[in-house]
Every structure is written in structure tokens, then in C-alpha cells.
């Protein structure tokens, strides 16, 4: 891959992450990136890199130290996810730590070092529970499943040996597997619906962070290409039409990043008991809406400016444009999050909307 020039994750808007941590992450990912990708088989699971992340405490970055984690916050985890997205490294770190690990603790279930992912259960035509498009289920040791139950949602921590896996891929070639199991295996504690709602927003924020990281990489690649590609005796970045497209890419990428950073701050405050769920829900919805719409502009115009070379497997661009499009459709579409913004703003009413926006 070419050298990348992404914004410094140690100084994102409104919060600061230890620059030594960011440097460590970048050095590790640079040595391993990009994750191998086969056009038909999809992205391979890099077990060696996972073991390194685990040994450094990065695979369970936000897990409390009492549970064997690093006890960090959303700020550090957002830096990690941004760097992974910008390096085209695909591993289910967020699902393992921020989603499955968090839900196990919320449900009062033990947390150990087994690699986990997470799935939402529905029922198939045969009356069997199924979770569709579960991230990297085939590479997990267990899947944390959430299903509707009496008085709330049932949380089941199910070993891979008890699951029937049907392998699949998302648009970017990442594993998204359907998981089936016997109803008797779907047992566990019941958590309130509010916990499930917060899980949905946490998952939405994870994908927003990743989309923003991919878009920033698209911007850097496009700037590099347009400043080095020469036509009619000068770099194409000197042409006004190209400058307009670059300005659009930069503006949309910056908007997505600002919205994501605001949501990350809210998530960190929520975990620290300093913010309520309504504030987090609204800011995550805004971040997902902004990132989703930004992806449309950035992907289209980045490919337009790269021309034919940007569509080849030999060029890096497709790794980030496909990822951005795939991630923006997971845990709710852009339209879903647009509606969520409208619903929350309407619920807040004229008296509460300003406070919701500015808190």
C-alpha cells in the first residue's frame, strides 16, 4: 500500500488520545496491512495480527481491568477503529470488545478471553432461531445472541460448536455469516429493552467510526492521485473542475468526522455515567446520517477523479470505497438513521431540541 496521510487520531476534535498509543497502533498495522483479500473468497482472517492485538490489550481495549481488559474508553477505541479502517485491516475487534463484551457485562455474564462476535436473533420458517449477517461468526469462539423474551431481551453466550454456520460476505468481502441454533441453546439472563436499544446505538457508532476512517483514506488517496497525475502539462488538481470535486470530498469527510467525534464523546460520557441515553442516541443518529450521506459523495467523486485505475484490484481505492458502502448499510441503513434523527428531534420538541443539539 502507498504511504497514507490520515488525520492524527491522537488529537481528534474535543478529546485527546495518547499519541504513543496511536503510534503503537500505526506501527503494528503498518507491519500487517492490508488484510489479505481474495475477490471471491473475501477477506482472510489474520490470526497472527489478532494475537498481537490481544497480547497488547487492544482486542479488549474498553473491557475493565478486573475482567482482563485494558480499561480504556471510547476515545482510545475510536482511534483504534479509525486506524484499522485507514489501513484496510479487517478484524472483529469492535464486535468482540465494544458490543459483545459490553453486553455480557450488562447481562451479568462472565467475560473471558474467548473471541466473540454478536448477532440479533429472528425466527426462520422452520421455527428455529437465526441471526443473519453476523460479523466473522466463522472465526469466533462464541457468539453473543440477543433475542426477544418475556419482559426484555434474552442474552445467550453460545459456543461455536452449538451453532450451524452458513458463510456469507458483505460488499467489502468481510465475513457476514448466518447463524442457526436449536431453541434450547438460546438461554440466558433477560436484560431490559433499554439495554438492547443502547446496544443498537453502540453498534451504529462503531460503523460510523469505521466509515469516517475509510472516507479519510479515500480523501488522502484522491489528493495523492490528483497531485501526481499530469495531463496537458500540469497536475489535474490544478483544473478548476477537479478542485470543485476535491472540495466536496474534503467537506463531506470533515462533516462526517465532526459528527462522529461528537458521538464518541457522548458514548464515553455515557459509559462514565456523565450523559443520558437520549443524548447518545441523538448524536449517534446524526453521526450515522452524516457518514452515510458523505459516503455517497466521497465514493462517487473519488472514483470519478481516479478514473479507470480506481476500479482495479491492484489499486487501493476499492478497499476503502467498498468498505464505506458496506459499513454504512450495517446496523441500520442511512435512511433508517435519517428517520431516527427526525424521530428524536420531534420527540424533544421545540423546548428540548436546542438542548439536545448543544449538550
From TrEMBL:
Keywords assigned: FAD, Flavoprotein, Oxidoreductase
Source organism, top-level taxon: Bacteria
InterPro entries noted in UniProt: AcylCo_DH-like_C, AcylCo_DH/oxidase_C, AcylCoA_DH/ox_N, AcylCoA_DH/ox_N_sf, AcylCoA_DH/oxidase_NM_dom_sf
Residue ranges of domain Acyl-CoA dehydrogenase/oxidase N-terminal in the record: 23-108
Cofactor: FAD
Entry keyword annotation includes Flavoprotein: yes
Family in the record: Belongs to the acyl-CoA dehydrogenase family.
UniProt name for this protein: Acyl-CoA dehydrogenase family protein
Naturally occurring in which organism (per UniProt): Nocardioides eburneus
Amino acid at each position: 500500500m502507498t504511504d497514507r496521510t490520515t488525520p492524527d487520531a491522537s488529537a481528534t476534535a474535543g478529546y485527546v488520545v495518547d499519541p504513543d498509543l496511536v503510534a503503537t497502533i500505526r506501527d503494528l498495522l503498518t507491519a500487517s496491512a492490508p488484510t489479505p483479500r481474495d475477490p471471491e473468497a473475501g477477506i482472510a482472517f489474520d490470526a497472527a495480527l489478532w494475537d498481537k492485538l490481544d497480547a497488547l490489550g487492544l482486542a479488549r481495549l474498553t473491557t475493565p481491568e478486573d475482567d482482563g481488559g485494558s480499561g480504556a474508553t471510547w476515545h482510545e477505541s475510536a482511534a483504534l477503529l479509525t486506524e484499522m479502517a485507514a489501513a484496510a485491516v479487517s478484524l472483529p475487534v469492535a464486535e468482540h470488545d465494544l458490543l459483545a463484551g459490553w453486553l455480557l457485562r450488562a447481562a451479568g455474564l462472565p467475560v473471558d478471553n474467548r473471541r466473540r462476535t454478536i448477532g440479533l436473533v429472528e425466527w426462520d420458517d422452520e421455527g428455529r432461531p437465526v441471526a443473519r449477517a453476523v460479523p466473522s461468526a466463522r472465526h469466533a469462539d462464541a457468539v453473543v445472541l440477543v433475542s426477544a423474551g418475556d419482559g426484555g431481551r434474552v442474552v445467550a453466550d453460545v459456543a461455536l460448536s452449538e451453532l450451524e454456520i452458513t458463510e456469507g460476505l458483505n460488499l467489502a468481502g468481510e465475513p457476514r455469516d448466518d447463524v442457526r441454533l436449536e431453541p434450547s441453546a438460546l438461554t440466558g439472563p433477560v436484560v431490559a429493552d433499554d439495554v438492547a436499544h443502547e446496544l443498537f446505538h453502540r453498534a451504529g457508532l462503531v460503523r460510523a467510526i469505521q466509515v469516517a476512517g475509510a472516507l479519510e483514506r479515500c480523501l488522502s488517496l484522491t489528493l495523492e492521485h490528483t497531485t501526481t497525475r499530469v495531463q496537458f502539462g500540469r497536475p489535474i488538481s490544478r483544473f478548476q473542475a477537479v478542485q470543485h470535486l476535491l472540495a466536496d470530498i474534503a467537506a463531506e469527510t470533515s462533516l462526517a468526522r465532526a459528527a462522529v467525534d461528537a458521538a464518541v464523546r457522548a458514548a464515553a460520557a455515557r459509559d462514565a455515567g456523565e450523559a443520558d441515553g437520549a443524548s447518545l442516541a441523538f448524536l449517534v443518529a446524526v453521526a450515522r446520517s452524516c457518514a452515510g450521506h458523505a459516503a455517497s459523495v466521497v465514493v462517487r467523486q473519488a472514483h470519478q477523479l481516479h478514473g479507470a485505475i480506481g476500479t482495479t484490484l491492484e489499486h487501493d481505492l476499492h478497499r476503502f470505497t467498498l468498505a464505506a458502502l458496506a459499513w454504512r448499510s450495517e446496523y441500520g441503513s442511512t435512511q433508517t438513521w435519517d428517520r431516527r434523527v427526525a424521530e428524536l428531534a420531534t420527540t424533544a420538541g421545540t423546548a428540548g431540541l436546542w438542548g439536545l443539539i448543544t449538550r
